[in-house]
Amino acid sequence: MSQQRKGGLGRGLAALIPTGPDEGPRLGNDAADLILGPRGGGPRTTPPRPRSSGAGNRGTADMELTGTASSTARGADAGSHADDGAPVSRETTELVDPGAVYREISPAEIDPNPKQPRTHFDEEALAELAHSVKEFGLLQPIVVREMSGGRYQLIMGERRWRASQRAKLETIPAIVRQTDDEDLLRDALLENIHRVQLNPLEEAAAYQQLLEEFDVTQSELATRIGRSRPAITNSIRLLQLPTAVQRRVAAGVLSAGHARALLGLEAGAPAQDELAARIVAEGLSVRATEELVTLANRDPGDTTDKPKPAPRGRQRNPELEAVAGRLSDRFETSVSVTMGRRKGRITIDVGDTDDLARVLALLEGGSTAAPR
Hints:
disordered N terminus, disordered C terminus
């Protein structure tokens, strides 16, 4: 069984922390790339925890972090483990919260974040990460806050923490910082959104929880977390789907675009579930789903007929239909593409002004995030 690597501090963290001679467990190359930036309202400070004779038993070592991660530090760090040809886990680039403290902490002393919006962890991916952590150590610290009784509560890095437990590491690198209760869900949500790890239903549930806990409007929430209001509105609407359809979305067999199309089906939950099963079985695109929903709404209870054929005299063009299908998937709405002898036309259907704003954001910036 591989031993946890010992040695000097990784160059990435050394670029952030004024230290003396190298000592203590090796933090790893990517340490400079992971800590969240300061919160609004000015930096909060956490006094360094005094080092005591019992620190060795607890497996903790304190070090105050100052400054922010620089591109120079990351650049100097790029080659160390890459030269080994060994797989390592890489996470989000984050900044150091001034006054935060670095410690080596036993995974057993850390409790999970009770407001973690992510409920599903891929077992195969977690096993691979645990193997990597066991072989090479944890290359990026987790982020925790100190609780009473000498325990810590996880803020960010639950996959790394779970993998470290599986790998049976005695201690892992952690950044200890002050975080208010009301910020726990927000921080965990933003970390997962930035890493694209939440499925659409988890993201929708997290938005709804934030709205209820903060007692804010969707516009205010959008401003606070840097998302567009239409994106939040469309996400929360997914919670209106029947449970069976929500399970398919959570499992990844139905996209958020398919789910939004199903919301327009007026026949109710049984028809939505039936059409969802057909989408999975036949691999229907978002555009085809929208056409079926339109037909079903004209003739309630009918979700089995194929979309109406093109009118006579209009030649079908498979290439243009393929382009329209890709655009429909991209914009998550119905898109038609037609070509005449001298010019062509692309038509994008929008439901309302919010939907128009969402499409415009995609056209202008390639993201549903609010313009900055």
